[in-house]
Specification:
Order of helices and strands: EHEHEHEHEH
Strand order of the largest sheet: 2-1-3-4-5
Number of domains: 1
Strand content: 15-25%
Oligomer: single chain
Shape: globular
Radius of gyration: 14 Å
Helix content: 25-40%
Length: 148
């Protein structure tokens, strides 16, 4: 399915505990060209509840794309990524790691855990917005994703 098709509304799950980065991501996606519903959770426990439709997330949609930080409270991003990719119902969802870490070990471990891509957050505001828009353009307009 080309989720970037004009009639499609793309479901995006953002797993991020930094309110500033959440606000910037919302701003970048709001100004984009793809209709989307951005859902935000702050940690790995909430993310798995959302993805498995548990508790307050019972009616949550299955996301077309996950954007996640590695540095999360509680269950860290690397553990969360492994859990997502180990679940046969979730593993096909592309996961974009968007994090401040440039550590070679973090990058290697993320790819070994089947991250779809690894992007380092820039410090500059305009560059951050540009990066999120690039993620949107690539994953939601260019790439063909599997259906339901």
């Amino acid at each position: 399915m080309n989720v970037g098709a004009e009639a499609s509304i793309v479901e995006i799950l953002l797993i991020e505990d930094n309110p500033g980065d959440v606000r910037l991501t919302k701003e970048a996606l709001k100004d984009g060209h793809v209709l989307n519903n951005l859902h935000v959770v702050e940690d790995g426990q909430q993310a798995m509840a959302f993805l498995r439709h548990r508790a307050e997330y019972k009616g949550a949609p299955t996301p077309d794309l996950i954007i996640m930080d590695l540095h999360l409270p509680g269950k860290d991003g690397q553990t969360l990524l492994k859990e997502i990719k180990a679940d046969r119902k979730l593993r096909r969802i592309p996961v974009v790691v968007l994090t401040t870490s440039e550590a070679k070990d973090d990058i290697l471990q993320a790819y070994e855990s089947q991250a779809s891509c690894y992007v380092t957050k820039p410090v500059d505001l305009d560059q951050f917005l540009s990066i999120v828009r690039s993620i949107e353009d690539f994953w939601l307009k260019i790439v063909k994703l599997p259906q339901g």
